[in-house]
Amino acid sequence: MTPEKWQNILGNLKDNFDIKEHEKEFREEQGGMEVEYVIFHSPLGLVKLEFMSKPVVLDKKTNYSRRIGSETKVEYVYSDTEKTHTLTAYQWNEDEDDWTKIQADSFL
To answer: Which residues, in sequence order, are bridge partners of residue 52?
Structure first.
């Protein structure tokens, strides 16, 4: 998924569906990720699309000692320029009162 395709999807959603909520937020975990989501009413019910942009992991460093009882630390090195983008779809589940992830296999 690219940011351009995401903008096209947002435009189509705004034209064809009733948008309930549309927000952007920044999260510090995983090198700082940007999350944009939209919640809308569809024929399937309430649906949430979440578009995440986060830095690409360049390296993974593991610091450890062979001593008994010592701990292991994992440090990640993130790119300053390259980003990876993912789109995740959720459907509101009335029984569980929570969002459930829509599996891609269900569209085949």
So the answer is: 35, 86
**What is the separation of C-alpha 21 from the centre of its chain, rounded to a whole number of angstroms?**
16
Residue 75 structure tokens: 């440090």
Reported residue count of the chain is 108
Cβ distance 81 to 47 under 8 Å?
Answer: no
The sign of the dihedral angle between the CA atoms of 76, 81, 84, 85 is: positive
Q: pTM here?
A: 0.79
Domain ranges in the chain are 3-55+81-107
Give the model confidence (pLDDT) of 40-89 as tens digits. 999 888 999 999 999 999 999 888 777 777 788 888 898 989 999 999 99
Could you give the CA distance from residue 17 to residue 104 in angstroms, rounded to a whole number? 21
Exposure pattern of 33-55 as b/e (b: 16+ CB <10 Å)? beebbbbbeeeeeebbbbbbbbb
Spatial CA neighbour of 59 closest among 81, 43, 74: 74
